[in-house]
Structures
1.
Amino acid sequence: MPDWSNTAVPERVNIWTLAGSSLQNAASAQQPLSSGSQNNAANQAAYLPFVLPWRYPVQRVMWCNGGLTSGSVDVGIYTIGGGRLWSLGGVAQSPTNAVQYANAGIVLSPGRYYLGWAQSASGWFAGVAAPMGRPLGLYTQASAYPLPAQATFAAWGSMALPIVAFTTSPSGI
Amino acid sequence: MPDFPADAASIGPAGALSPWAEGSVYNGLYGGGWASRTLVANLAVIAEVFLPVIATLRGFSWTNGSAVSGNVDCGLYDAHRNQIAHTGSTAQAGTNASQAVGATATQLNPGNYYVAVAIDNATGTFNSQGSNPNSAGTFYIYPAFGLFTMASAFPLPSTLTLAAPSAAAQAYLPMFGALIDTSVV
């Protein structure tokens, strides 16, 4: 058995800033954060790769709504092969211009994953336009709300990248 | 061979617990480059940081800008936002230079921490990144990156209450951190 402690993990991890994730450099290079809000087509899923170096209990997911909310948001976590491990199932996007939290309740082992994001309508979120997504391993899927049990990865187009983070905290900011 | 990654996030920081040392700062929150900037008087700038290894707290440091004035307080808090140590009110001294204050050696176990800095006036400057020029109306997103503020927080309080910045000047991020030693525990 390895002689190391693996009990401590960051309370909050943002997939834009996780070391080893391609989004880390891509999002950081997008200087500055886009003015105003972004949105994508209704029912269009985005699959964003990230790397977890720890065993991580995801108590909640969070994202940043923009100035106009609409419909519902679904967030999911997928294996690198596209199998859905967990998804929110969809919650109404609310309120505007705020971080929105939703309970998750999944423990992830160290490894590589895709975060799935889809909306039933074209509500706005804080983020960046991400035309550079294809060479970074981002994928998309049409008609994917709610998020499917098996992702069918399609080439990334000119979509926008939402800010999504996890936390081990069950409540609070 | 153990099947676990040995990347920077597992190995942890060396030298300082600081948002800038973690590689966790999203540069797109900022703009205008490094410059001498004032902070809001008595407003604590707070960053959530993660320490994956045992370390020893040695002190605190920040980088002053081209004007110094009044007093600075820099501190470290545990995962429950309770204060572990702080410099106390310290005269800001030395323009365009880093300033350091020692702390009683304290063992820090792996876990989540908060580093905070506050100044008691709006004249003294820090070497800071300015807020995103497109940030009007988007300050609420800073907590998603582990960045917070607390008003009326000079000297730094015994317990932090976290809030999102609500104006551009509140969203500046100076160069500061808690100095740690991970070589001897």
Note: The helical segments of chain A are 22-29.
2.
Amino acid sequence: MPILNERGYLIPAVNNTSVDYIECAKLLATSIKSFHPTAKICLLTDKHIDDSIFDYVKILPHGDQSPNQEWKLNNDWQCFTASPFRQTIKLEADMIATSPIDHWWTVFEHRDLAISQGCRDFYGQLSKSRYYRKVFDSNNLPDVYNAITYWRVSQTAKEFFDLVRAIFSDWDSFKKLLKFPDDVPTTDLVYAMAANIVGVENCILPTNFGPTIVHMKRHIIPTHTSDWSNELIWENADPGLRIHTITQSGFFHYHIKDWAKTNE
Amino acid sequence: MTTGALIFAFNNSDIDYLALAAWSADNIKRHLGIPVAVVTDISESDHLDKFDQIITASTDAGGHRFFDDIGKSVQWFNSNRTDAYSLSPWDNTLVLDADYVVASDQLKCVLNTTQNFLCHRRAYDLTGTQDFEDLNYFGRHKMPMWWATVMYFNRSQQSQLLFESMTMIKQNWQHYKNIYGTGRSVYRNDHALSISLCTLNGHTTDHPTIPWNLASVTPSHKLSKIDQDYYRIDFNNSEQKPRWVDIKNCDFHAMGKGHLGDIIANIK
């Protein structure tokens, strides 16, 4: 793909039968532009849509690689070649920006690749929960979250995404390298394996240095049910968000997709 | 500019807080070299001679709490801690619980701070046998808790707003209790302080604190004095075997008022 802009945010989003990820992507783009009106945002999807919130809409160059799967993870490797930016921050669609984020470019710009590490609860505390990360710990893999991934057009990034493609495409072979592998690979796990091969030091920033997402999954946050939106108070601060009175910062991974509808 | 300590001392039927405060005043003067004011409703007592200033005030009952070392639930009267800003006679004030034992000059560095307000974010058990995570957070959704045991403040808008905010929270405790799901019917200064700090700092949990954790002795452990500024804690380990630790020249929060009361009574 030709490079159309120096820096921008890329949001991959392909709808499935239960979740309208493109609507999630619109909400995310709106939240980014509420803080940074001139930010360039590209939607990467499987069909043409027309919405001015996106500066670019790109179609998956190799099409939907998971036509029969609800979770369209196998498309992730296409982000590298599909991005119209020389420097890209890829974001998972089901998040919103809750504070200014453009200082991250300064943190990232000296790297070829940087995947976020760890996650926070809504108090801003780094999560100690390993409930969702057992396979990472069992295999001594880096604790990466693909929800925020930076790369610049570079040999390192190309090598990384080639590996991501290879692992997704031949999971049955690659999973033999792992203790207690998942039957279906998650993007985080594939990124962690690829990072191990490329060299972890080339793929992550020093611990506690780069951005982390606020993760609203039950075992990360101290809620008693899965749907935090029924349990916690949330307030739109226009722009911004408070959860149970606490001002959120960075990207907020709301996890409950229906919450996005009420927050549109 | 004046700098001094402020101790709240309201006796109940089981604990002589004024005696604790008077003993603490000696320790504060010896280690920190600052005058001590007491806020109390007692007008006649030999203990009052230990203080540089006596501020007479009344207070409402804060609630009941069970103490292992006393063996029953006792009422405490400390809900007017929110008035510390208006009651303090000092420009720079160090508010200390009457049961906080000053055994070193460590708090001098707090008195030299450029911050308007400081307190402890975390407490820990000096014996290492109890996990204080349940005490360092509160409410149904584990709101981080800041401790009102040791508070430093100066005369500033920030400090004034903080205490006014605590008062507002105290007056509307039912509302805040519902939000944070404290599960307790009684008001607690630590909770009001935590909520106020977060609110005044832009609804964030990131604000300056005393740069070490609050050493604590729990009521279930026996505290005794060996020598001046030298104490011993007897406890049972996880296998219920008796163990002890010595603490020397280390400030701590004696959460068991009964044991501390016994120490002070024996000194007399």
Note: The radius of gyration of chain A is 17 Å.
3.
Amino acid sequence: MTDQAQLLPGTLDLLILKAVSLGPLHGYGVLLRIEQISRGALSIEQGALYPALFRLVRQGLLKANWGTSDNNRRAKFYELTAAGRKRLREEANGWHRLVAAMGSALATEPEEV
Amino acid sequence: MSIVSSIRSLATTLFRRSRMEADMESELSAHIQNRADDLERSGLSREAAKRQARIEFGGYERHKEDCRQSLGVHFIETLLQDVRFGSRTLCKSPGFTLVAVLTLALGIGANTAIFSLIDSVMLRLLPVQKPQELVELLRFNPSRGGEPTAGFTNALWEQLRDDQRIFSSVFAWGSDRFDLSRGGAVHYANGIITSGGFFNALGVRPAAGRLFSTTDDQRGCPSIAVLSYGFWQDHFGGAQNAIGSTLSLNNHPFQIIGAAAPGFYGMEVGNKFDVAIPICATTSFDGKRSRLDERSWWWLRMAGRLQPGTTPEKLKAGLKVLSPQVFGGAVPLDWDSEGQNDFRRRQLVAVPAAVGVSELREQFAQPLTILMIIVGLVLLIASANLASLMFARAAGRNKEIAVRKALGASRARLVRQLLTESLLLSFAGALLGMLFARWGAALLVRYISTTQANVFLDLSLDGRVLGFTAAIAVVTAVLFGVLPALRSTGISLTAAMKGSQAEEGNRHASSRLRSGRWMVASQVAFSLVLLVVAGVFLHSLRKLITLDLGFDRSNVLLVNANVKAAGIPAAESTAIYDEIENRLRSLPGVTSAGRSSRIPISNNEWEQEIEVDTPNPPKGDDAGAYFTFISPGYFQTLRTPLLAGRNFDASDTRTSDQVAIVNETFAHKFFPNMNPVGAFFRIVDGRVGRPARPMHIVGLARDSKYESVRESISSQAFFPASQIPQDDDSEVFELRTGTRPSALASMVQSAVGQVNKGVSLEFESLEEQVDDSLVQDRLLATLSSFFGGLALLLAMVGLYGAISYLVTQRRAEFGLRMALGAPRTDVLRLVMRDVAAIFGSGAVAGVLFSLAGLRVLQKLLFGLSTHDPATLLEAILLLALVAFVAGYLPARRAMRVDPMIALRYE
């Protein structure tokens, strides 16, 4: 657990959108999916997930429906809306550009200047 | 309807809210369950798994609160919760709540009272149809310059009425008083004399009968009258059969044809009409000299309703074309050619009249603005005291706040809760304050009413006043609530939970002390400003009251007698006046009696141009003199000494030599370095066929004031009442007595009744007459003193509280000092040095503010220099004394600290 990275501000929303884009999930499932797809490298305070989920629903990027989970508990499942899909695409592109720019900036060697 | 629907929407919100709360709860607990299941599967015991799951989840309540925030639906919910909690907390400390609400009620109430006066005098639209379309017409002489003035002759009105095409309607009105009595003591009703289209143009409907129409206002019309709703109710009990009955106005019968709708008081703010008559009906009052035809009688005001879409440019252009037609058709034919040409050059200008017309507005606009600033400062000072109270309260709630923080309340949420408490206090204060304000504003209106002018203002609540009160309630709550709320929620959790006051407490206390000092110093500064303002107004008023007016105002009864109503022919009026004067002089208790065409210090003025044959005589406007026609008893009764020559006597008759007595200023101006007695001057008439009349000066009187107490003395000439050139409807008798003047009234009434029962009488004392002219000064002096005193009291409480707190904080230090051998007086000196520092910084700021403020007030003050160092010094000394007392009491307590107890306490 020591090599976990802190989330940059604003990235939690993007992670949630990505996680949900792979299939409808309930809250705990979102957490597990994020751990899975980040290979356990990102730590999230679990409770902080829910305000973010509620916010995304309110912004119309996610929609939520009550259903039954695999262990037969009543659970709320989150799904991406069309607007959410679009937002995910935009944010992901933005993120890739940023990573590429930062990567090339940080990789600069003295002789390249 | 809207209330029902808003309740319904609130109910749905609350209902939906409870479901949402349940959903959220089940979703979050499911998460923890799922996590616990997973952990259990990985080998933990059930209990350990549950515990671990909860720890990983983080602050449960805090996350829930964040979720609520994200859902964003619970604004009203939280507000209600805060209000409920706030009210409970406030009810738990009733003493604090009572003091806070009362302080706020006084402060907000004073602000609301003054603002409601400003609203009704200056801001409120006339309660008529589309008041924004109304403009008043004024006249302006481009070749002479100066301000445009109101006032038109009937000839001008008739020209406007018949010629104009700019306005959708025009109307005119004049104000007058109508005597309702039939002889004896007068009983006046406020009258307006209106053009036929007056009510129609304003869109006023009848409450009973009918109102005037243009066909009612034609020469030779019958005497008809319309009542105001209030007068109809008060005098006739609103009886239907009052319509059609007759009403005696100035001893002439008028038939009542209707009553106007309630809420319409006329065009003038500060005055309400009782009876309206059409312009044409004035012929019953006027004799040969009718105001319908007299082209130098400027008694009407004119206004119009703009056609929709009239731009200011179009209006201006239209008036430019209209003006020569209107003035050209109404030239006074008896004026000389120069005067007539001047008359033709005059122009009409239009000014917005949506808020009505008002002399009151000109008189009180500035005083009301100043009072608004004064009460605003008082509220600031009160807010500072409340902030101190809130700080003290917050210090006592440290633990409560720490617990709530630990349970997951965010700082913003706590600040919001505390601010809700402040707002609750503030609105409770505002509600109570509105009661104070209604009572206070009514009291003020009564205060500015004089015997001559009974001020009427519509003080009913309107949206603007309510909005203002709500706004200052919010601003005040923010002022006194924000700092304490921020400070008290900024505490560190661990220190507060441990209950140790040591390190954390000290940091907290010292910052509180600093802001406390800062607040008290600003209170001192503002109080000083208010004291200085009160001081200068008091000084100014005292100077005005004690000023030598050139006559002795005490113990003089004024009797205004009107012989016209009695139907006495003009030729006999002088004889009647003489007889009345003789009878009054012989009344028991009357030491001397006189009469005059006017009373000093009244608006009734008569000014004409004077010509003399000395070298380089004054010319034009500089050559004017004010006239008064008097009987021989006048000077003796008013105790204005004659300095040279003779008084008027029985030998001065209508047919004898035309004689005059002049005052010192007249003599210096027209006859410098000469004895005026025996000299001649001429009165320039300015009318065709009236040569300047030569006057023989027979006496010289001491200077006295003519129109106002404030004026610098102007040239005056007195003439014998027996030589008055035109019929005088009314004259004023002055009776000097040894007792209270008003005690004479009934005797005077029966004495005059023996001469002629039809003469109407009006009583007032000369002292009241002079006092009434100073109503504005008295208002400012009284109110600024009241609020200055209030500010002083508040500052004293604030200082006392701040020093008390300081002494408590430093108890241990004082104990230690004394234990180490410091004499008690050293401790006293230490505390008093603090008091002096706070007072000093406040006083310096206060002096600077005051000096800036005094410059603005200069115009309203009488006989004071811009700095008025005496007043400044007095205010500083008074404040210093109060500060000393407020600081000394806690300082003495500090001095009496027992070192042993103080040290053990630590």
Note: The beta strands of chain A are 25-26, 62-68, 74-80.
4.
Amino acid sequence: MRDTLTIARAILRGFSRDKAGLFFTLAFPLVFLIIMGGVFKGGATPHVTVIEVGRVTVLDSMPADAHAQIDKVLDVQHQSNLDDALNQVRKGHAGGVVEQRGTTVLVHYSTSDLAASGTVRSVMQSLVQTANLAGSSQPARFSFDSTSVNSTAVKPIQTMTPGLLGWAIATGATFTAASTLVGWRKRRFLRRLSLAPISMGTVVAARLLVSLGVALVQAALFLTVATLGFGLRLQHDWWACIPLVLAGTLAFLSIGLLAGARLRTVESANAVANLVVTPMAFLSGSFFSLSLAPVWLQNLSKVLPLRHLNDSMRALLSQGASAWSVLPQFGLLLGFAAVLTAVAVKLFRWDDV
Amino acid sequence: MQPAIVVDDIRKSYGKTRAVDGVSLQVAQGEFFGILGPNGAGKTTTLEIIEGLRKPDAGRVEVLGQSPMPRTRALQRRIGVQIQAWTFFDKLTAREQIRTFAALYKVPARRADEALELMGLANKANTLTERLSGGQAQRLSIACAIVHSPELIFLDEPTAGLDPQARRNLWDVLRDLNVRDGRTVVLTTHYLDEAEELCNRVAIMDGGRVLRAASPDALIRDLGGITRINLPARTLPVELARKLFPEATVDTDEQTVNIRTHEPAAILAELATRHALDGLSVHGTTLEDVFLALTGREYRA
């Protein structure tokens, strides 16, 4: 254990002086978060879904041409149960719920998506005014009111943070494992270490220790920036993302280990790591939600470890899932790591010659 | 006394290349032993098989009475190895590097600092290894190899890439390790003068085999005192030299005429009467002549 710490400290000290390495592992993913967090801050969706519960006269008795105009902005859906509809809003699936109580048109909106709720409220308000003006001789027939659903709706930052964090972990772990391994072998440093009275297990454990530590720092930085800078709200069991981050790191270290087991140059190891991680990040919904992708692609992506890391962290961080519910994904990531590591050990070579 | 190293008919091939083709050696404890030969002679492969870094295809090795493979920690603590490579952690200072190695050998940091001092690196202790010159990095690598005071030290071309002054300084350090501290030292080199200067015994390798192994003195004595006279070809054309000195061996490499002889006095007298002493140099027998005699080829490192 003391030897492991000795080597881990040496690796970490070197890493802390490696400006390019620090940038790509810690700062670069944050830059991504900041750019995307800024771009999607409002979450402005041009087309807002509105759920109509029961009958709402101002919507139902619109002239056809007015209907066509409204359809450009609002996608009106019907539902009979108010609670179900409100839940949709809370989850961020709809911009608002419209119902009529007597002559009052009531809009339930979500505070978290201001753009969508603003659209719904202003459109509905103008519809009420138009209807009142149409019968201008009489006193106003309808009144307008709106109320917040006290929402825990999913803001973009809530889905984006876990996805980007997953990608950052995947990149960091895969690249460090692949390039350290190949680099150390190429310049025969592995050989040199093997001459000291320590086992190779000690060397590997030291490398793992550093990678796990760096991944935790990555996660902490990410969550801090997203929370303080972009209003990410951590859900109740968010702490469970710590073991998930660790399991994910092991899974991606094993990919890097496999890539590094035989490759001869650091450049080719990095290229292979890139080739694996970047498409996987897209297919696993790190950057964009997969909900719009074809079903077969969504199913296919379930073989990817990053998909499970992203899904489980999303469930924890933004959907308020319990720690127990992500246990399967946790196990899956560890299993993936174990299998790939076993294969990598089989293929591994200490020397180029 | 038990020999420090016994090597018995080891062989190692890479594809069709026989890198080591039946090498046998013995190194006594306290000896300074050199493996000498041009590049590609099989020196490094031989050394790495002895160190336990490579597995021979055939043959037997014993180091301090044990087989070097599989490695045991007890043996690893008793030997120190410097290999030809950039064997450092990324972006650590010289002191941090050697202290890390010291910690792995359970040696106090003070001894690490002493090893730096010994290698003349005390003033570079806080320099990142990436910023060290080639010679400084080489010395740090040796310092790391001896930090745990091993009784048997392996050095693979330790002075390669050093300037003449740094080479001589390193020779002093290595001689001290051997003579003063009683360590057994095995080094490979392609510098004949280095082997002559440092080694008690030298094995001359070529083409994966040991041609001769003996003390430099004995090797030279065996040649019976050959003197080498070099002079510029413009001073004395090679054809004329051959005609004048039929008893001597004369050859040339365009610019220089090279005469090897057992009777230098007569030749020098003849050259003097011909006023052909411009740019002339006279050498006693060196390992270079030994190599030539053994292989029939001029020595080219």
Note: The two ends of chain A are 31 Å apart (CA to CA).
